[in-house]
Design a protein that fits this description.
Number of helices: 11
Oligomer: single chain
CATH architecture of the domain at 4-84 and 215-315: 3-Layer(aba) Sandwich
Structural class: alpha/beta
Shape: globular
Strand content: 15-25%
Bound molecules: adenosine-5'-diphosphate, magnesium ion
CATH superfamily of the domain at 4-84 and 215-315: P-loop containing nucleotide triphosphate hydrolases
Strand order of the largest sheet: 6-7-8-3-9-10-12-11
Number of strands: 12
Length: 321
């Protein structure tokens, strides 16, 4: 029996990009997300990593239905939610919650925290005042704050405290899947570990499943059971943490890892780029072709297939072996 809570299949999403050099501003589509498939098992934290602009947030927004995919399926708790009507989607929406990078923009500055939370409960039809207060009181200690914070305005809270409130907001609807998108990137380094530990302990206590999105490999390694590496809208490698750290095979993952290691040693790493074949990138080239230190002519002619190396390791590269 399968044990996954979420399965996404072949997600595609393109945006219009305008060619500013053209006199007629011709519209051109570019693929923000291309052929993304993966699963998240119950109680598992899957890390999604890749540099800024590679499509991580778009994947999160497609899963939470904040963005509509062009094609592909999102199967949540056994149900294909890609094509549900608004009405049928309503009960499922509260089961998947997304937490974003910037807690300040998620909280209305004119409302005290208490009111923000009550309105969130109201929106999921919990209207009884006493019940609202019970729920809020129960969660406020879980996220490491006290009741006294409820009568404050967002600007009276630190960044870390605001992010704790955003985590609380996500938990209010009793979700089973959390999409955490760069949730510590806007916070001071000293606060980051506290928020990560909070998320980890909540995940265990409430048996949550999580897609943990970050551009920071160290943080993903700390948080996740399994890692998915994205580059320019595609998954180029995936595997459990140990496997990725010790046995990664994709040149892009290796580059990510070496930049982490060199940061630890305080050295800059120079990307060795083989420029011999790189002048013209084909539409059907490997996504990493023009930056890959190992690329060969075939990498510009044919997209690599997704190769399954073992139960918990896949890679998209012509030279995986
Ligand atoms: N609403 C949008 N309209 C046009 N382009 C977008 C939109 N949202 C994202 N993009 C583009 O899609 C690509 C992927 O974005 P995003 O998913 O935010 O990446 P990441 O989260 O990995 O930084 C980027 O090039 C971004 O500029
Ligand atoms: Mg993002």
């Amino acid at each position: 029996m399968n044990n996954y809570i979420l399965k996404v299949e072949n997600l595609q999403k393109s945006y219009d990009s305008f060619n500013s050099h053209s006199m007629f501003k011709r519209k051109k589509k570019f693929k923000a997300v291309s052929d993304i498939s993966f699963e998240i098992n119950r109680g598992e934290i899957v890390g999604l990593i890749g540099e800024s602009g590679c499509g991580k947030t778009t994947v999160g927004k497609i899963i939470t239905k904040l963005t509509e995919a062009d094609s592909g399926n999102v199967i949540f708790e056994g149900k294909n939610i890609s094509k549900l009507s608004k009405k049928d989607l309503q009960p499922i929406r509260s089961k998947i919650q997304m937490i974003f990078q910037n807690p300040s923009s998620a909280l209305n500055p004119q409302m005290k925290i208490q009111r923000v939370l009550k309105e969130a409960l109201f929106s999921i039809n919990i209207t009884d005042k006493e019940e609202q207060e019970n729920i809020i009181n129960q969660y406020i200690t879980k996220i490491g704050l006290t009741k006294s914070y409820l009568s404050r305005y967002p600007h009276e809270l630190s960044g870390g405290q605001k992010q704790r409130i955003c985590i609380l907001l996500a938990l209010l609807t009793n979700p089973s899947l959390i999409i955490a998108d760069e949730v510590v990137s806007a916070l001071d380094l000293s606060v980051q570990a506290q928020i990560l530990n909070l998320l980890k302990s909540l995940q265990e206590e409430l048996s949550l499943s999580m897609l943990f999105i970050s551009h920071n490999l160290n943080i993903v390694y700390y948080m996740a059971d399994r890692i998915i590496v994205m580059y320019m809208g595609e998954i180029v490698e995936s595997g459990n943490c140990e496997e990725i750290y010790k046995n990664c095979r994709h040149p892009y993952t290796k580059l990510l890892l070496s930049s982490v290691l060199s940061l630890e040693d305080n050295q800059e790493i120079e990307e060795e780029i083989n420029t011999e074949y790189k002048d013209k990138k084909n539409d059907n080239a490997c996504v990493f072709f023009d930056r890959c230190p190992k690329s060969m002519p075939i990498c510009n002619q044919k997209k690599p297939e997704n190769i399954i190396i073992n139960d918990n390791h896949t890679i998209k590269c012509h030279f995986a072996e």
